[in-house]
């Protein structure tokens, strides 16, 4: 199955996320081994983007929910069964 975002084919999870976000994922998550200066510059750029597009967090939340619902295999989501509640008998007398 092929996935397209805005007319561009996403061939990997990272492609899909970058196309959905409109920015590289690394801008928001950082990269391993970045210096404090690189981190400060990255966060400053992210703040500028959010200031220019205040609706972005809500839009991204909707997109993420839709992606998880449509393509759970991208996230290795496994439904967990709830364990049965065990009641332990109480000892003593209630006052």
What does this structure look like?
The chain is mainly alpha-helical and 95 residues long. The longest helix has 17 residues, at 36-52. It has a two-stranded antiparallel sheet with strand order 1-2. It has helices spanning 13-21, 25-29, 36-52, 56-70; strands at 3-5, 8-10. The model has no long low-confidence stretch (mean pLDDT 79). It starts with a strand and ends in a 25-residue tail after the last helix. The chain contains 4 helices and 2 strands. Helices cover 48% and strands 6% of the residues.
Characteristics of this structure?
95 residues, mainly alpha, 6% strand
Major β-sheet, in short?
2 strands, antiparallel
Radius of gyration of CA atoms, rounded to a whole number: 22 Å
Would you list the SSEs in sequence order as H and E?
EEHHHH
In terms of DSSP E residues, the strand content is: 5-15%
Q: What is the tally of helical segments?
A: 4
Say what oligomer this is. single chain
Structural class: mainly alpha
Q: Helix amount, in percent?
A: 40-55%
Query: Which word captures the global form?
Result: extended
Strand order of the largest sheet: 1-2
Average of per-residue pLDDT values: 79
Counting DSSP E segments of at least 2 residues, the number of strands comes to 2
- The separation of the N and C termini measures 65 Å
pLDDT < 50 stretches: none
């Amino acid at each position: 199955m092929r996935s397209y975002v805005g007319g561009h084919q996403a061939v990997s999870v990272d492609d899909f996320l970058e196309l959905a976000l409109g920015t590289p994922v690394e801008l928001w998550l950082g990269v391993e081994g970045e210096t404090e200066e690189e981190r400060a510059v990255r966060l400053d750029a992210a703040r500028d983007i959010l200031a220019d597009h205040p609706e972005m967090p809500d839009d991204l939340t909707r997109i993420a929910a839709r992606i998880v619902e449509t393509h759970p295999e991208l996230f290795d989501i496994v439904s967990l069964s709830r364990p049965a509640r065990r009641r332990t008998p109480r000892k003593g007398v209630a006052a």
